[in-house]
């Protein structure tokens, strides 16, 4: 099969320069959308085809579309960054492409070739280049590739028609308060994912299952929720949409091992490399909650943070549960946490040398 091309269809419905400039001054997160989107369709008989860049707008779906009934859907998230010379880059997109393939495999969806994934990003950002913010802080263009079962069919089997899209949204800070220490609620009633389930896939169902726990966290004055393993409820998995790290007094950086119920975050992997570069010892292992809480209380764990594409790195200042509350360090933003964040964002925005070759130019 030949590679997808994603030709561009112009639209007269572009947002005006003045309105776009107004939006980009304070975009928030996930509130505004660009003029175009990428689209490709897969069928069981012909494979991937019908690729194009089209005007952003509503989708027409049959009420019998398989995704609405059986949740056969996966997605990704990454960003496009404006550099000082005006060029636009993205960060380790081949890892997002490979993860989308793994997620698709788990949800019985077709795998989009890595080259076609990268082409869809390049073509969309080229069409929407004016939407990439000139950063005054950490503004970027958030990219959301996703695919879903669009076949009109109510039988329970893998769909024979699947649509792939990429939409884009100018973004500022993920958390409204910016980079401030989070209060995190430890869920003891709800699980995010179970052994043999879809925890390692980036699919909507995993996030839907986190929403009640996030509401519970908010009721207890927390910003986020931490999930434990579904079998024993004794070890840490991840937050609702972020991986978690701990830094110890003896210069180790700890994170839960990938057990099949934890998403393999691109930011997570990058932090492990940057931490090792700084002389920290990366440790991927089972993090038993009771031991972590004891280590926080004793001062053995000095910093705790969450990470993901949207939020980058955000310190955790307090853990709360029905059994009490634990302050990490002095409850502030740890020095190493902020140093890792500064280096990572520096690479993404072109302010720090990309010594690992993680950046890909889009425009």
From TrEMBL:
Pathway: Amino-acid biosynthesis; L-leucine biosynthesis; L-leucine from 3-methyl-2-oxobutanoate: step 4/4; Amino-acid biosynthesis; L-isoleucine biosynthesis; L-isoleucine from 2-oxobutanoate: step 4/4; Amino-acid biosynthesis; L-valine biosynthesis; L-valine from pyruvate: step 4/4. It is an enzyme of class 2 (transferase). The keyword Ligase does not apply. Its cofactor is pyridoxal 5'-phosphate. It comes from the Bacteria. One of its GO terms (molecular function) is branched-chain-amino-acid transaminase activity. Gene3D superfamilies: 3.30.470.10, D-amino Acid Aminotransferase, subunit A, domain 2. It catalyses: L-valine + 2-oxoglutarate = 3-methyl-2-oxobutanoate + L-glutamate; L-leucine + 2-oxoglutarate = 4-methyl-2-oxopentanoate + L-glutamate; L-isoleucine + 2-oxoglutarate = (S)-3-methyl-2-oxopentanoate + L-glutamate. Keywords: Amino-acid biosynthesis, Aminotransferase, Branched-chain amino acid biosynthesis, Pyridoxal phosphate, Transferase. One of its GO terms (biological process) is amino acid biosynthetic process. The modification N6-(pyridoxal phosphate)lysine is found at residue 202. Belongs to the class-IV pyridoxal-phosphate-dependent aminotransferase family. This is Branched-chain-amino-acid aminotransferase. It comes from Candidatus Brachybacterium merdavium.
């Amino acid at each position: 099969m030949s590679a997808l091309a994603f030709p561009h269809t112009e639209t007269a419905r572009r947002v005006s320069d003045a309105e776009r400039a107004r939006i980009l001054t304070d975009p928030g997160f996930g509130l505004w959308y660009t003029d175009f989107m990428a689209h490709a369709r897969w069928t069981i008989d012909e494979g991937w085809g019908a690729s194009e860049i089209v005007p952003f707008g509503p989708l027409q779906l049959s009420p019998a579309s398989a995704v609405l009934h059986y949740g056969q859907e996966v997605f990704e998230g990454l960003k496009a960054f404006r550099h000082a010379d005006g060029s636009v880059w993205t960060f380790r997109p081949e890892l997002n492409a490979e993860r989308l393939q793994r997620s698709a495999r788990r949800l019985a969806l077709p795998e989009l070739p890595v080259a076609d994934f990268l082409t869809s990003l390049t073509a969309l950002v080229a069409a929407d280049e004016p939407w990439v913010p000139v950063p005054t802080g950490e503004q970027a263009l958030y990219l959301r590739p996703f695919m879903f079962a669009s076949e009109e069919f109510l039988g329970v089997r893998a769909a024979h028609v699947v649509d792939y899209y990429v939409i884009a949204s100018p973004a500022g800070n993920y958390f409204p308060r910016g980079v401030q220490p989070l209060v995190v609620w430890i869920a003891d009633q709800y699980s995010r994912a179970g052994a043999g389930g879809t925890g390692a896939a980036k699919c909507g169902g995993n996030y839907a299952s986190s929403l009640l726990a996030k509401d519970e966290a908010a009721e207890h004055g927390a910003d986020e929720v931490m999930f434990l393993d579904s079998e024993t409820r004794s070890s840490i998995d991840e937050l609702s949409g972020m991986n978690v790290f701990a830094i110890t007094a003896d210069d180790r950086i700890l994170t839960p091992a990938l057990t099949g119920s934890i998403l393999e975050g691109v930011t997570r992997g990058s932090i492990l490399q940057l931490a090792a570069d700084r002389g920290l010892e990366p440790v991927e292992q089972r993090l038993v909650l009771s031991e972590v809480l004891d280590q926080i209380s004793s001062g053995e764990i000095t910093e705790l943070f969450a990470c993901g594409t949207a939020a980058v790195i955000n310190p955790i200042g307090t853990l709360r549960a029905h059994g009490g509350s634990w302050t990490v360090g002095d409850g502030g933003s740890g020095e190493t946490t902020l140093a890792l964040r500064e280096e990572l964002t520096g690479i993404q925005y072109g302010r720090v040398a990309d010594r690992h070759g993680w950046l890909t130019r889009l425009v």
